[in-house]
Amino acid sequence: MKVYDRTPLNLDRMVIPHGRVYLIPERCKGCNICIRFCPMQVLQESKGQNAKGYHYPEIVEGKEDACVHCQFCMIVCPEFAIYTDAGEGSTP
Amino acid sequence: MTRPAVLTGKHFMHGDHACAEGALAAGCRFFAGYPITPSTEIAEHLAARLPEVDGVFIQMEDELASMATILGASAAGARSMTATSGPGLSLMMENLGLGVMLELPTLVVDVMRGSPSTGLPTLPGQSDVMQARWGSHGDFAVIAYSPWSPQEMFDLTILSFNMADLYCVPAILLADEVVGHMVEKVTIPPEDKIDHIERKKPSKPADGSTYKSYLVEDPDLVPALPFAGEGYHIHLTGLTHDERGYPDMSAETHDHLVRRLFEKIQKNANDIIRVEGYELEGARIMVVSYGCTARSAHSAVLQARAKGIPAGLLRLVSIWPFPECIIRDLSKSIDHFIVAEMNLGQVRLEVERVVHRDVIGVHHAGGAMIPPEPILAAIEAVAK
Amino acid sequence: MSQAIVAEKHPLDDLIRADRMPHIWCPGCGIGIIMRCYAQAILDSDMPIDKHIVVSGIGCSGRVAGYMKLDSYHTTHGRAIPFATGLKLANPSLTVSVFSGDGDLAAIGGNHLIHAARRNIDLTVVCINNFNFGMTGGQVGPTTPQGAFGTTAPYGCQELPFNLPGLLKACGANFVSRWTAVHVRQVRDDIQYAFSKPGFAFIEVLAPCPIGFGKSNGIDDGLEEMEMYRDRSVHIQEAKASEEEMVIDLRADHPIYVGRFVDRDRPPFKPAEALKS
Asked: Residue B324 has what pLDDT?
């Protein structure tokens, strides 16, 4: 994907991580902040509910590999309910 | 040149200064306070002396801050104190209750003055007695001693620190302007003669598990709280809390906690209470008094004895917890109780509660020491 | 769609009291975000966790102390700073932080705030500013923007709010910054920077309060307030505004000025020492 006016010299050495999303459903309070602030729009509100009736997030159809492990969902979640890690096989 | 913490020897010392020296001798290394007559000399003396013993002195912006600061210092493990008078004590009430709830020992010296309100800043009073006991909101017990001399300003400060640390509770030294501002002989013993009780500490080192700060298994009902920074990761909160220190809003937990905090003092009252008896032998009339007024009462009792009147003096060195058993036992052989105090009848209420009969009061709202004459007159009136 | 991987443990669970999760703050409340930044700052600071102490006052933000797995003290309303002062001065090896709200620190605790800053006590104070007294249901506070509504200002807040950075700068604090709950990386960085910077550090973080402030002021949920912060924040370096204008004013055109307002090196408070002869 081409996003630069000029190609950075070390572009070939840049590896975009392939992130995996982890969730602790019982902690989620359905505030949707992670969903709205995810730069790759990986998440959406699920039909599933936790014990308190909050709809926790799920991964959008087709976006299973879109997460780039930028961790913003973890950083901006008020409930310590979501985080990511870098899975294997990251695209250059 | 820097002087040591314990100035062993005989001194001719100002009452407030004696209190400050007592604190240093007791190992107090932290003072936070706010100037207020008639206790300012304690702060001034410690401002000069604490740095000599590598202690911390800080003058805070008000008494609210002072009380909170000494509790913080206590949480870090320091023996800490503040000194104030009636108006300041009123401002310290909420955080006094915090000290009770967090079970953090500290010392509050209240050099009482003519009250209420601004009252008589430079003149004596003894009308904060009930405030010391009931001033903060809620059911809890306090420890309060009342010195009648600069020597006792020294001795009772040490005793207060030891009792506070022993029972993990704030202690109050209820002095008054006369005792605070008079100058008298003060003998300071050698350092090894000054007993020093350490706070109970956890028996096992931190192991990463949630330490149960308030799981109290000892019969004395006192918890073993670690200091800040020792790795136990404790949580202390003014909210009603469970054994782990976590907030717990159940009525049952509340009742259990509040009763333990209360019983912790009441159950150990005999170890805390101090009284002194004068001319008790064959006494039929008992004068009960404390602080500077007890000096006049003592003189009155001696004069009465000289006239063949069987009068005695019971001096309350500890006012809270109230020495009920002692007074109840005495009442078997005493015909008349007289309470002499510089307020309109606060300890008298307690004595009446205990002996279940009328008690004669020799009262004055404050501003001048009660002389022996009215006390002697009261003794003679009932002696007929 | 497919499920996220269900986990038991969050990477920061060792620093928080996971056995007390989920916490009591409302859905969309920003306090959890800022507490996470604090936990991350502690993890990334080279100081041992045992030496990190947190003190809180009363209010929603006052519950932060109870959720951090540190030596933590939940004191009385407004008195967190003096309590923390006592802790720090009695054991200077501790890194003492104060976590509280706008009401606790700037209303009832205002006198202690300005004096601790004047003395430049070595504390890190994080003030979570959600413009109201949230715990008690949304009353106006000392930082409620003029014209905003609260349960005790049904006709709109008549008063001018504090500009906290300006106030703390005038008092003498060594470090003052203001961010919002969207600026999560800057908040973490500033908290960690404050740990190692001697003197009084004050970090104001605007946080959404959907139930207390939002409901009275037409902000439907925490997300909407987060987006408002993202859209209206202007860094003070790019701002062409005087300091007076940097007060928070949520009426239409007024930007929210964020950034580091003060970073200087006045000597931190040190108790007097005797003249060793």
From this structure: 97
Chains that touch A (3 or more CB pairs under 8 A): C
What confidence tens digit (pLDDT) does each residue in A36-49 have? 999 999 999 999 99
Specify the DSSP class assigned to residue B352.
H
| Amino acid identity at B130 | M
* C36/A77 CB distance under 8 A: yes
Calculate the alpha carbon distances from B279 to B283, B308, C55 in Å. Answer: 7, 12, 53
What CATH code is assigned to B9-193? 3.40.50.970
> Could you tell me if A22 lies within 8 Å of chain C, comparing CB atoms?
yes
Task: Please tell me which residue of chain B has the smallest CA distance to C90.
Answer: B73
CB-CB: which of C1, C21, C36 is closest to A27? C21
Query: Would you say residue A45 lies in a domain?
Result: yes
Q: Alpha-carbon dihedral of residues A25, A28, A29, A35, nearest 10 degrees?
A: -110
Whether residue A3 is contained in a domain is answered as no
DSSP letters, A45-74, are EEEEE-TT--EEEEEPTT-TTT-----HHH
Tell me what ipTM this predicted complex has.
0.95
Spell out the domain ranges in chain B.
9-193, 277-383
C-chain residues within 8 Å CB-CB of B69?
82-83, 85-86, 89
All structural domains of chain C: 25-276 (3.40.50.970)
Predicted confidence (pLDDT) per residue in A54-70, tens digit? 999 999 999 999 999 99
At A92 the pLDDT is: 56
Distance CA B262, CA B264 (A): 5
Residue C2 has pLDDT above 80, yes or no: no
Residue A40: CATH number of its domain: 3.30.70.20
- Chain C residues touching A32 at Cβ < 8 A: 221, 223
Judge contact between C238 and C246, C-beta under 8 A. Answer: no
At A4, the pLDDT band (50, 70, 90 cuts) reads: low
- Report the number of distinct structural domains present in chain A: 1
The domain B277-383 is classified under which CATH number: 3.40.50.920, 3.40.1390.10, 3.30.200.20, 3.30.70.270?
A: 3.40.50.920
Is the pLDDT at A1 greater than 60, yes or no?
Answer: no
Chains touching chain B at 3 or more Cβ pairs under 8 angstroms? C
CA atoms within 13 A on the CB side of C61: 37
> How much is the pTM?
0.96
Asked if B228's CB is within 8 angstroms of C71's CB, the reply is yes
Query: Domain residues for A35?
Result: 17-86
Residue A1 lies in a domain: no
Q: Measured between CB atoms, does A53 come within 8 Å of chain C?
A: no
Residues B377, B330 contacting (CB under 8 angstroms) = no
Residue C21: which of A36, A54, A80 has the nearest Cβ? A80
CB contact under 8 A, C6 and A24: yes
Q: Is residue A55 part of a domain?
A: yes
Residue B141, pLDDT above cutoff 60: yes
Structure tokens at B158: 């040490």
